[in-house]
Amino acid sequence: MFVSFKVFVCLGLLFALSAVALAAPDWKIVKIGGREYLTADNVAKFYGLPTGVAPIEKHLRFDNGTNSVEFQLDSREVLINGVRNWLCFPVTEKGGEYLVSRVDLAKTLEPQLRPQMISNLGHFKTVVLDPGHGGYDKGAISPYGCEKDFALDVARNIKPLLEAKGLEVKMTRDSDIFVPLELRARIANATKDSIFVSIHFNATDANPSAQGFEIFSLTPRGAPSTADDALALRFMNMQAGSAVDAPSLALSMSVFHSVVGHFSEVDRGIKRARFAVLRLTKIPAVLMEGGFLTERGESRLIAKSAWRAQLAQSIATGIVNYKGLVDHKTPPMMVADYRREFEGQLVLRDANAPVKPEASPASVVIPTSN
């Protein structure tokens, strides 16, 4: 059933944001299975995107030259400003109209399409860098080395780049030691005026060809994580969310657009998860997965110190762009901005270039947690 009411009422319920300058459309709320949805046209109109667009092969794309969104029917996958994202709930259809969940309007679209409107960005002067694993916990292993060593190297490369921009940096570990997940979160929470960036590399025992970058922030309360299946959905309301959900997603966006803009690797998307370091951290927090150690070509790249230095540069650039958003309400650069900037300079990866092994070949070990 459709219910119309003015946007200032809807915004009070959805975002708790101040008054907006955009023209106020009437929202069409559609209830399906106890969940509230909005028509894609309503969403497009609110953000100044073209309306009345017809879907093509179940894809519905809106683009006004500044922002773009591409929905896919019956899918949680969505492209926002050229980067893959994962909605909390699939796009559905009723009466010939594509519908987007009200949760996703507030939790996925709004923080990325209007990050300057986030009300609780706060202030930060310190970045807590968290190189994953360490000590006896090697993380994932490739024939060329261990995740714990690669993650620490990337974090060490990020540190002086951020310090050169006037930021303070605290490392949860700066050597090959094991730090419990709970302690990593306590270090972050005890650091005044800070954000948290955890560095990892990926692995899988199911698909050896899996590759690419992905980034995570905490799953909102009442929503499934990106990797959750239908059996997990009944437990989702039992999980806590984050008071800094929107800033964390904006940090994810800023870092991920920079990383994808600097590289030609596969874009696996901005995702949601309930990893312990995200769940226990009370400040804006993200976890970056910098490629797969179980994919032959990507593992060879990760083993190169110059490639890891470039990854560190891209992550640091994303963090500095997020700082601009926090301090000056300047929207972070998008992937298209980076690609214009690097036009003619990006070099496609050479996965077949020789790499000197840093360790003897070993069986792949899949980390049990992050």
Care to describe what's here?
Helix content is 31%, strand content 24%. It has two domains: 2-113, 2-Layer Sandwich (Copper Amine Oxidase, Chain A, domain 1); 126-341, Aminopeptidase. The strands form four sheets. A six-stranded mixed beta sheet has the order 13-10-14-17-15-16, with helices on both faces. With 370 residues, the chain is α+β, with helices and mostly antiparallel strands. It has helices at 7-14, 40-46, 102-113, 147-163, 181-189, 245-262, 276-279, 296-302, 305-328, 335-341, and strands at residues 2-6, 26-32, 35-39, 59-63, 68-72, 77-80, 83-86, 92-94, 97-101, 126-131, 141-142, 145-146, 168-171, 194-202, 213-218, 267-273, 285-292. It is built from ten helices and 17 strands.
Question: Quick recap of the structure?
Answer:
With 370 residues, the protein is α+β, with helices and mostly antiparallel strands.
Oligomer: single chain
Please provide the count of β strands: 17
Element-level helix/strand string: EHEEHEEEEEEHEEEHEHEEHEHEHHH
Work out the count of structural domains: 2
SS-derived structural category: alpha+beta
CATH topology of the largest domain: Aminopeptidase
Provide the helix percentage.
25-40%
Low-confidence stretches: 1-24, 346-370
Shape: globular
CATH architecture level-2 label of the largest domain: 3-Layer(aba) Sandwich
Outline the biggest β-sheet.
6 strands, mixed
